[in-house]
Design a protein that fits this description.
single chain, 400 residues, alpha/beta, 15% strand, binds adenosine-5'-triphosphate, binds magnesium ion
């Protein structure tokens, strides 16, 4: 199953007079894993809900398989929604149904499968998320982390081509988060589905995605290959990735500019970003992630448009993983191309990385590829699955 591209252009969403974000433009590359970061309240959940047509943006388009979800008929929207598997931030389980019925719900609603087939699928997914034996429990009788995992199982029962996870790791302990992250990469290897994950977990952002975006101050401040955000010197990014109090992000998002500047001066000497960690690889025995090769091609074509630090990080990670360095599509003047415009001429004037707070906000980074990253982090815990015999589907995998 090939991955599905999701193309978002000029998307703007308000509730009444309150604008949430404007002019969001990004493309989720088919079959790749993308992460969306952003301070609380910046509209990440609203963005995911807009992607599946639960909320209607007033401007812009979301195109999947040549259908614009913002303008299509209800019937077409219903059809397109079957491509999605969604884990909502709150799990969104039916309180009066036990876990088995909750997880079976999409199958009963959207397919004509027999109860015996449904039983097999539900058992497989429950085992995969470590909930075997909990079939009869009600959502109110289990822990928050278990509810999250039940929501995860339900998101996967229809073998979706586009998977949206809203904070799948919140409420999970660090070990289960590590298993979950490996599960995401393994699911991607097995299904080639397109993933968009909202997370506040910096380790997840550093080790899981191919691409990272960030919503900030009502705009998409960045979206592009992971190396771009992970090497960005933007104060907002640095504050976020370091989990620091000092910086432009305040408790209620907006911070007084003068105060932010004073704090930035204070932390100047401690500044810097955490080193880039290797991206997780699929567990041994699983198929290679098809996204890796596609992404490598894409990043080679856009490399000259990326900031120098991102270019260097990409080359380094490729050298470490023994791949050939990506060849730019055209003559390259390092650091000379405007950031975020893959078609920019190589002799365009130098432009530094855009600062999130001083515009041009909403100008997306090139969302396109980066190469395969370094080998699997040996620190990651095993997934509980013996290497060898490739699985026939995502259900073979589990975490506890
Ligand atoms: N249905 C709605 N009607 C009115 N306002 C809404 C609605 N849904 C969300 N909002 C508002 O949109 C803003 C963004 O909310 P959202 O839940 O998307 O934030 P978020 O980035 O997901 O935050 P968090 O990280 O805390 O989950 C908030 O101010 C919220 O109050
Ligand atoms: Mg949210």
């Amino acid at each position: 199953m090939p991955g599905v591209e999701v193309k978002v252009e000029g998307l703007t969403k308000s509730f009444g007079r309150a604008n949430i974000w404007s002019d969001v433009t990004l493309t989720l590359p088919p079959g790749e894993v993308s992460v969306l970061l952003g301070p609380s309240g910046t509209g990440k959940s609203v963005f995911l809900k807009s992607l599946i047509g639960l909320l209607k943006p007033e401007k812009g388009s979301i195109v999947i398989h040549d259908t614009d979800l913002v303008r299509c008929s209800e019937n077409r929207l219903y059809e397109i929604r079957k491509l999605f598997g969604v884990l909502f931030q709150d799990g969104a389980l039916f309180g009066s149904m036990n876990l088995y019925d909750n997880i079976a719900f999409p199958l009963r609603e959207h397919t004509k499968k027999s109860e015996a087939e449904i039983r097999d699928i539900v058992a497989e997914k429950m085992d995969m998320v470590g909930l075997k034996g909990d079939e009869n429990k009600l959502p109110g009788e289990i822990s928050g982390g278990m509810r999250k995992r039940a929501g995860l199982a339900r998101a996967l029962v229809l073998d979706p081509e586009i998977i949206l996870f809203d904070e799948p790791d919140s409420g999970l302990d660090p070990v289960r988060t590590a298993y979950l992250n490996q599960l995401i990469i393994d699911l991607n290897a097995q299904t080639d589905a397109t993933f968009l994950i909202v997370t506040h977990d910096i380790n997840t952002a550093q080790t899981v995605p191919d691409n990272i975006g960030m919503l900030y101050r009502k705009h998409l401040a960045m979206f592009g290959p992971r190396e771009v955000l992970l090497t960005s010197e933007d104060p907002v990014v640095a504050q976020f990735l370091n989990g620091r109090r000092q910086g432009p992000i305040g408790m209620s998002e907006e911070k007084d500019t003068a105060q932010a500047a004073r704090e930035m001066a204070e932390v100047d000497e401690l500044s810097g970003l955490p080193p880039i960690k290797p991206q997780l690889e699929a567990t041994a025995g699983l198929p290679e992630r098809k996204a890796v090769g596609r992404r490598q091609q894409r990043v080679a074509e856009m490399l000259h448009t990326l900031p120098p630090a991102a270019q260097e990080a990409i080359r380094r990670s490729q050298a470490e993983s023994g791949q050939a360095a990506p060849q730019p599509a055209r003559r390259q003047a390092v650091g000379a191309a405007p950031y975020g415009r893959p078609d920019a001429p190589a002799d365009a004037p130098t432009q530094s990385i855009p600062r999130v707070q001083d515009a041009p906000l909403g100008q997306p980074l090139p969302s396109q590829n980066a190469p395969q990253d370094a080998p699997q982090n040996p620190q990651q815990p095993p997934t509980g699955r013996a290497p060898g015999g490739p699985s026939s589907g995502p259900g073979r995998h589990r975490y506890r």
